[in-house]
Every structure is written in C-alpha cells, then in structure tokens.
Amino acid sequence: MWREAIQQILIPEAELQRRIRSLGRAITADYAGKELVFVSVLRGAIMFSADLARAVDLPLTIDCITLSSYGDRHVSSGRVHVLKDLADSVADKHVLIVEDIVDTGITLQHLWQHLMAHRPADLHVCTLLDKRVRRQVELPIRYVGFEVPDAFVVGYGLDYRQRYRNLPFIASLRPEVFAEDSRQLSGCPAREHG
Ligand code: PRP
C-alpha cells in the first residue's frame, strides 16, 4: 500500500502544477520566435515533460532519451547508460533537457556531452527538482522547479524500484522502505536518489 511507504508530502499536486505553469510561461518568453526541442529524460521525466510541454505556448517537438544510472536500487551504480537514444537529430536545434531531478549531476553531465556532440544551436536544462546538497558535478541549470532536501523522494515520475511514479505529488519515502537495500549495499559509495 503506497500510503504506508510515504513519510511526508513535500510538494502537493496543486503547488507542483502552479510552478509548472510558471516555468512554462518563462520558457515561452525566453524562446519567443524559436522552435524548441524538449529532450525528455525517461523514465523519471515522463510526467513533468508532459505537463510542461502543455504549459509552453511555442512550436515544440518532444523527443525522449532513456538513461539509467540507478537501476532498481536507491544507490547509483556510478555509470550512466543510454538505454534508448533520441529518434531525431538535434543538430542546429534549440534544445531543452527536461529532467525530473538533478542529484549528483553525473547523469546530466553525461547527457550534456552526449547532446553537445550533435551540435545543437543551443542547449539548456530544466529540472523539476534540484537536490543541490548532493551535487558532485556543476552544470548550468536554467530552470529549476523546486529545491529539495536530502531525502529519498518519490512521486510524479520519481520511483523507488519502479514504484510510486504515478503519485500526483512529490513525497519522501520512509527510511524503513529502503533500509534493507541500504544494509545490503553498505560499503558502496552512497548516491541516494529520488
Ligand atoms: C534519475 C533521474 C535523473 C538522475 C539524477 O534517473 O531521473 O536522470 O537519476 O541523478 P544524478 O544527478 O545523481 O545523476 P534514474 O537513473 O533513477 O532512472 P529513471 O529516470 O528511470 O528513474
């Protein structure tokens, strides 16, 4: 039962949606007169990119890339894999990376290099959540929805073992839920996620 796994709702649905509409207005103003390509980073950004795209009033295309560094565990493997690449070329396009969360920044660094190799006209980042406190790699992030504390967060696309992505809000997970996982992995470099 998901209710038992949730510790606290950190960002309720109405607040999330309000902030997404405001990000959409900022993006619409900043890219006025241009056509934009959203690069939605699956699976986590699925909800955010769908709602953000509808809040942007511009000609826009959406492409998806599937990356994974965390797999099914809450501690990163430290390796970022492109599981499924973009369908279309981003050469000479105005590209906006749409992420659910930037934590250590390692995923974003890999993605940034991957996309820059295709020579977009420009490249910026929009993340719903920024867990700044855990950053290891600094990259410019143009749009941030919310800064979140160093808690394991789930919901609105973010998962633990692929669950909780469908919650319409952002919540912290009870530590007991992933305690067993943490015990098994003790000794590994900790990159907590949600
Ligand atoms: C999550 C999230 C980001 C990344 C951020 O992806 O969607 O892409 O971790 O972490 P970092 O800044 O420490 O690199 P995950 O690998 O969990 O896959 P998912 O999107 O399928 O949940």
Can you offer a commentary on this structure?
There is one protein chain. It contains five helices and nine strands; from the N terminus they run αβαβαβββαββββα. The protein is of the alpha/beta class and 194 residues long. The chain has a six-stranded mixed β-sheet with strand order 4-3-2-5-6-7, with helices on both faces. Strand 5 (94-102), helix 4 and strand 6 (122-130) form a beta-alpha-beta unit. The site of 1-O-pyrophosphono-5-O-phosphono-alpha-D-ribofuranose has 21 residues, from strand 3, strand 5 and helix 4.
Write down the overall mean pLDDT. 90
How many beta-strand runs?
Answer: 9
Low-confidence stretches: 187-191
User: Strand arrangement, largest sheet?
Assistant: 4-3-2-5-6-7
Helix and strand pattern: HEHEHEEEHEEEEH
Quote the distance from N terminus to C terminus. 19 Å
Main beta-sheet strand count, sense and barrel state: 6 strands, mixed
Secondary structure class reads: alpha/beta
Name the bound molecules: 1-O-pyrophosphono-5-O-phosphono-alpha-D-ribofuranose
Rounded to an integer in angstroms, the radius of gyration calculated over CA atoms is 16 Å
